[in-house]
């Protein structure tokens, strides 16, 4: 039974890989755009970090690279949703339901490719941030990975939860874009947390981007190791687990999704 489930999930994943390779433009744009924005924003980030006393010798990449990486990663939520809604738009969802694949297998298969894309996006942005903007990581690179992996999973599960809750692609797109901007603002991706308005401070821990930025800052600015980021990484795992529960509770394979308004 388990072998059969693995075969079915693998077949669906291969199809998603083929579709991604056929049209990689969304992934490329989400990776290139934060690098372009960093080029313009680095002086502002440098001034904000130095003014806040977080790093007197900061060059701005310490805020710009993780901030833009986190912000644009949450735009992946739209792509996760589109991958599910297109099955309804192409009228292939009923074929999948009629196959031997169970609903939980259909969901599991749709997570793999976006998760890999999210990890790749983070890796390229951080790598390019070091090469192009002189990002200096004073802590353990492994600790960055410990934060990045649950962050990527959390982003994908936000998309899956919205798939379960939204009926139309327009609903999902609007909510996903709003969440990406709200998460970026409250989480400290747009500005250092020391420069955020007073009213935002108490709200910030309620969003996953805050914990991602907290973990990245611990490593990049304060030289933290794996032990220092276990709390942010653990909270991100809790966010992902909660979103998984929402997805499983509200997802109905027989509910028709509309790929138009």
UniProtKB/TrEMBL annotation:
<dbReference type="InterPro" id="IPR000412">
    <property type="entry name" value="ABC_2_transport"/>
</dbReference>
<feature type="transmembrane region" description="Helical">
    <location>
        <begin position="65"/>
        <end position="85"/>
    </location>
</feature>
<feature type="transmembrane region" description="Helical">
    <location>
        <begin position="106"/>
        <end position="130"/>
    </location>
</feature>
<dbReference type="Pfam" id="PF01061">
    <property type="entry name" value="ABC2_membrane"/>
</dbReference>
<dbReference type="InterPro" id="IPR013525">
    <property type="entry name" value="ABC2_TM"/>
</dbReference>
<feature type="domain" description="ABC transmembrane type-2">
    <location>
        <begin position="25"/>
        <end position="254"/>
    </location>
</feature>
<keyword id="KW-0812">Transmembrane</keyword>
<feature type="transmembrane region" description="Helical">
    <location>
        <begin position="172"/>
        <end position="190"/>
    </location>
</feature>
<dbReference type="GO" id="GO:0046677">
    <property type="term" value="P:response to antibiotic"/>
</dbReference>
<dbReference type="InterPro" id="IPR047817">
    <property type="entry name" value="ABC2_TM_bact-type"/>
</dbReference>
<dbReference type="GO" id="GO:0043190">
    <property type="term" value="C:ATP-binding cassette (ABC) transporter complex"/>
</dbReference>
<feature type="transmembrane region" description="Helical">
    <location>
        <begin position="229"/>
        <end position="251"/>
    </location>
</feature>
<feature type="transmembrane region" description="Helical">
    <location>
        <begin position="27"/>
        <end position="45"/>
    </location>
</feature>
<keyword id="KW-0472">Membrane</keyword>
<keyword id="KW-1003">Cell membrane</keyword>
<dbReference type="GO" id="GO:0140359">
    <property type="term" value="F:ABC-type transporter activity"/>
</dbReference>
<feature type="transmembrane region" description="Helical">
    <location>
        <begin position="142"/>
        <end position="165"/>
    </location>
</feature>
<protein>
    <recommendedName>
        <fullName>Transport permease protein</fullName>
    </recommendedName>
</protein>
<keyword id="KW-0046">Antibiotic resistance</keyword>
<keyword id="KW-1133">Transmembrane helix</keyword>
<dbReference type="InterPro" id="IPR051784">
    <property type="entry name" value="Nod_factor_ABC_transporter"/>
</dbReference>
<comment type="similarity">
    <text>Belongs to the ABC-2 integral membrane protein family.</text>
</comment>
<keyword id="KW-0813">Transport</keyword>
């Amino acid at each position: 039974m388990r072998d059969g489930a693995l075969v079915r999930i693998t077949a669906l994943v291969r199809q998603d890989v083929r579709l991604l390779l056929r049209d990689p433009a969304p992934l490329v744009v989400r990776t290139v755009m934060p690098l372009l924005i960093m080029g313009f924003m680095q002086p502002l980030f440098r001034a904000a970090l130095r003014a806040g006393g977080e790093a007197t010798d900061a060059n701005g990449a310490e805020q710009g690279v993780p901030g833009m990486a986190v912000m644009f990663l949450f735009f992946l939520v739209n792509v996760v949703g589109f991958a599910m809604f297109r099955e309804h738009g192409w009228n292939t969802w009923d074929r999948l339901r009629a196959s031997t694949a169970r609903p939980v297998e259909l969901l599991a298969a749709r997570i793999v490719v976006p998760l890999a894309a999210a990890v790749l996006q983070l890796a390229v942005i951080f790598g390019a941030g070091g090469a192009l903007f002189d990002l200096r990581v004073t802590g353990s690179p492994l600790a960055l990975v410990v934060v990045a992996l649950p962050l990527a999973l959390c982003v994908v599960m936000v998309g899956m939860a919205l798939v379960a809750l939204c009926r139309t692609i327009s609903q999902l797109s609007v909510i996903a874009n709003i969440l990406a901007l709200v998460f970026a603002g409250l989480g400290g991706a747009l500005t250092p947390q020391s420069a955020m308005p007073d009213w935002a401070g108490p709200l910030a821990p309620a969003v996953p981007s805050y914990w991602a930025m907290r973990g990245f800052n611990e490593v990049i600015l304060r030289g933290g190791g794996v032990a220092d980021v276990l709390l942010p990484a653990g909270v991100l795992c809790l966010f992902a687990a909660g979103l998984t529960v929402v997805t499983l509770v509200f997802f109905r394979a027989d509910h028709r999704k509309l790929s138009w308004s």
